[in-house]
Every structure is written in C-alpha cells, then in structure tokens.
Specification:
- By secondary structure, the chain is α+β, with helices and mostly antiparallel strands.
- The protein has one domain: RelE-like (YaeB-like fold, 2-Layer Sandwich), CATH 3.30.2310.20.
- It contains 2 helices and 5 strands, in the order βααββββ.
- A 5-stranded mixed β-sheet has the order 1-5-4-3-2.
- It starts with a strand and ends in a 14-residue tail after the last strand.
- The mean pLDDT is about 90.
Length: about 100
C-alpha cells in the first residue's frame, strides 16, 4: 500500500523538529525520522491497525500512536494519506484535515 504524507503532516513534522532542535538538533532529526519510519513500517501492511479517531467517528480516518504523538491517517483505495501529526494531549481540530482528499 502506498503511503502519502500531506503537506499538513509534513508541516507538523517540521514544527516538531524545530521545537526539539532548541535542545538538540541531532535528536530532533532522529526523532522525526523515527516517526516517519515507524508510521511507514506499521502502515505498510496493516492499514487497519490504527483505531478510529474519536473526534471524527469515520472508519476511514484512523490513528496510530508513536511515543506521545498521534498520527492521523485516511484510508483510500490505493493509498494511505497521513493527514497530520500532533501531541496526544490535545484533540484533533477539523481544520487539520479539511480539504485533504
């Protein structure tokens, strides 16, 4: 299954990296790469592994957790779209996934 990262998700990864870089640029790059590697490894053959996102209640919008981050993705016929990534203590905002088809 093809995995595609949306611009929203890539922007969030850059924000995560920038924040962690305040303490350690090397650790920041490694952490973001770990998020990407984990996501692609898990979803490459088990796309329904993640749970439905409670805020959305749509069976095609799901999430997996990596450390304290929520990785939100959408199931499509030919691909998995990574919609956004954010800290798990907050709720998903609808504007983070609107218009991403």
């Amino acid at each position: 299954m093809k995995i595609r990262w949306t611009q929203e998700a890539l922007d969030r990864l850059l924000e995560i990296e920038a924040f962690i870089s305040l303490d350690s640029p090397e650790r920041a790059l490694k952490f973001v790469n770990d998020i990407i590697d984990h996501t692609e490894k898990v979803l490459s053959d088990r796309i329904r592994l993640g749970r439905m996102v409670a805020e959305i209640s749509n069976p095609n919008i799901r999430e997996i957790i990596f450390k304290k981050y929520r990785i939100i993705y959408r199931l499509n016929k030919n691909q998995v779209e990574i919609l956004t990534v954010f800290e798990g203590h907050r709720l998903l905002r609808i504007d983070e996934i609107e218009g991403k088809k």
